[in-house]
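Let us work through a complete example step by step.
Step 1: write down the sequence.
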Amino acid sequence: MTITFRVKDETRTPVAPQFITHLRAVALCHLLTEKALRLGEDMVYPIHGSLDSASYAFEARVCPVALAQLSRIFYDWPPAIALLDEAQFRRRRLRITRASAHGRVIMEISTSHDFAPEVTMPNAGAYALLKTLGLSPDSYGAISLTDMRRRLTDPVIRGRLEGDPKGLGRYVHDLERMVETDTVSGQLSMAST
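Step 2: predict the structure and record it as tokens.
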């Protein structure tokens, strides 16, 4: 089992989720796979299942891709363009979900920040990291980025992280990148799930 740490923005957006076809979800994944190869970065984050499954969910990074390229996938359909534009404006990923084989595919703005890295660790390592940061070792939770930034700059906590015999120091760079993340509105937090 693993725990993933990510930057989360729960500010409500004025754009409603949209139903899309399964073929549009596949086309979006193909475009993002091409971009990932070119940029050398992950662009699709699976949550469960795959596009061949009856049900699936994944998050997609859309900020590094031109809106014109993304809108072509949806045949310049205004509701999809509005959703893509809002996701890029708010610097957030898209979340694509299909509940069952006959279920409709839903595209919505995710709570995950587009530019922030994710850190996935085995449970034991994640619990050790949380404990070292002075947090409760739970598999689900959130801490404000302001508080997380304060903890990472605390010399005592920083020393424990960098001197940890299990190698927690290797995560410090990504954690620092996470707390440097900004947003156009709302409060950001680091969530563990």
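Step 3: interpret the result. The chain has a mean pLDDT of 91.
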